[in-house]
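Our preliminary data section would be incomplete without showing what the modeling component actually yields. Below, a chain of 145 amino acids is followed by its predicted structure, encoded as tokens that our downstream tools consume directly.
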Amino acid sequence: MAFSAELIGISLAANNSFNLTPFTIDLTSEIPRLNALMNNTHLPATALYPGVSPDKGIELDFLAELQNEWLEIFDWETQQAELNEFAQYTAVIESQFAQYTAVIESQTVHFVHVKSAEADTNPLILLHGWPGSFQEFAPLNLGRA
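Predicted structure:
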């Protein structure tokens, strides 16, 4: 289902101080390059440091499985379409310390907006760390746009 800012109650007026912009994941043009990188990555036949614990690095067998999954199983177009079912935006946030410095730093942040189906609900902000993704909250069964 396509979404619009007005549908979820966000104004994209010209004077928007956060530069709120709708966001769509589109890495389709990068997939051939990623596949070429995977195809051209030659893993060693045997582990260089056998018996070393996994906390020292990725085990060769696991890495080979990942490479195979990316090349033979993973369907990025389907994954991308599922992620784009969420209403996504970017906003530019200025540093809260701008008043103390001559340099005004800003950051562009990406977020997913899910409006409750219930009236009179309190807003909830779910944050993830890096590396991470809003997909970490998928078990909560958040609504899509």
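The longest strand covers residues 88-94. Residues 27-81 form one domain. Preliminary results of this kind motivate Aim 1 of the renewal.
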